Amino acid sequence: MAGLFISLEGVEGAGKTTLIQKMVAYFGRCGKEVLLTREPGGSELGKKLRGIILNAEEKICPTAELLLFLADRAEHTETCIAPALAQGKIVLCDRFIDSTVAYQGYGRGMDIDRLNMLNALATNDLKPDLTILLDLDPEIGLARATARNIAQNLTVSEGRFEAEALEFHQKIRTGFLTISRREKRFLVVNAAQDADAVFADVLKALERLLEEKESE
Ligand code: T5A
Question: Is residue 148 helix, strand or coil?
Fold first, then answer.
């Protein structure tokens, strides 16, 4: 079977990490090899960039912020995602191109066409086979993320975007929904359901996709 590329998107605290863990377990039961990765921070260079980009105390202008995300993506695609797909693996990526369009485009107000071009450059035109959008009211997502950070005693060193106003996060949600209507690769899931119900919705699409891939 050729490789399969699945990205997950959504507002802060939408449940991507929780869902990905269930997906990894599912693919494991099916005997599939999986690369679990994320942006920013999936490559060795990306780990260093993540520390800079998400640190709320680091002052970064919007253009520099964008270019750091793109540098992370270019390195990640070239050194991690493309080789794994060439080996026939399933790549599960926590955020990819659509986060740039949603956050830097709809959130920060950058030109969407230009962002699409820059994404194409960074990925050498690679797009996911399936993008799962966990759609959630950002107020709920931020509350979940804050509760998790307190429960797990996590620091806020990665809080650049969590610190933004609720209005910013509303624009991100609207942005993701707008993108999802333009591209057929999207599966939009109601992330206000409990985690098992979210996974059940995703499972149906995964089973379909695996059947399609195996018949190719
Ligand atoms: N960014 C990223 C850009 O601006 N441009 C870009 O190009 C890219 C790639 C990345 C940040 O960078 C921005 C977007 C982001 O702001 P990150 O640390 O990767 O930052 O943060 P997030 O991707 O937002 O991840 P989070 O860890 O905050 O959220 P998740 O992974 O979506 O949520 P998760 O699974 O950790 O769940 C949060 C809490 O909710 C519970 C979980 O147990 C957990 O406690 N939960 C549920 N509770 C109830 N019902 C459910 N269905 C639940 N699912 C999970």
Answer: helix
